[in-house]
Write a structure and sequence with these properties.
By secondary structure, the protein is mostly helical. 88% of the residues lie in helices and 0% in strands. Helix 1 runs antiparallel to helix 4, helix 2 runs antiparallel to helix 3 and helix 3 packs antiparallel against helix 4. The structure holds protoporphyrin IX containing FE. The site of protoporphyrin IX containing FE has 26 residues, from helix 1, helix 2, helix 3 and helix 4.
Length: 136
Amino acid sequence: MYSFLMQAHADWRYLVLLLLGVSLVKYLVGWLRSSSWGRPDQILGTVTTIVVDIQLLSGLALWGVAMSQGLLGQLGRVRAFEHPTTMLVAIAIMHLGWRRARHQATDRDRFRWATLAFLVAGLLILLGIRLVTRMA
Ligand code: HEM
């Protein structure tokens, strides 16, 4: 059970990174070219946040199983606390920024907020992945 969850959690990261990368490029280009905010922009951000939320749920499940089996101590500080905390902060920033983007009055500001939200969240997520893979 634990190893299945762990594998699913580890593999899902590629979809997260792919969607964050595509979103970031799309929003940055939209911002720089002052494009109109369209339905594909809305859908892309929504899908990306859902995919990241699934990663969050699998991480919480992993953490919960590890805790219930008394494994947290064995995981070490970085895997048990620093990685989850970094990711929770990243995901909170992504959600707040994405919400803010959707409520802007102009398309340019929507692209700007979406770019900043996905950029900051993406960098933190890369850092959080590096924390656990560097020591694997
Ligand atoms: C975007 C968010 C996240 C990404 C991309 C991500 C990715 C990863 C990756 C790549 C690993 C290492 C797998 C390996 O060693 O091969 C890992 C491990 C782990 N993650 Fe996450 N994670 C995220 C969020 C979270 C969250 C929110 C939690 C908990 C609340 C969490 C809990 C854990 C734990 C406990 C491990 C270590 C498992 C072990 O070594 O047995 N993750 N994560």
